Amino acid sequence: MATESIELAGQLLEKVKQAAAKEEMISEEFVRDTVETRLNRSEWSETLEFGERSARERGLKPEDVKTEIAAVR
Known about the structure:
Layout (H helix, E strand, L loop, with lengths): L9 H13 L4 H32 L6 H8 L1
Helix pairs in contact: 1-2
């Protein structure tokens, strides 16, 4: 696994240390977990946007979802 150092401004670094301590983690674990969570949320948002766009293009409504899933299965 490649590593890289990232600098955080003093006030932000203190907030990270405090938040990590509350979670009973070291700062590096807290930052890694936070970044992974943010990236996963971004990927999930993209997936939802794709689904909503596809549904609009096909003229589907929320009540059509169960029928569409059943048709694929």
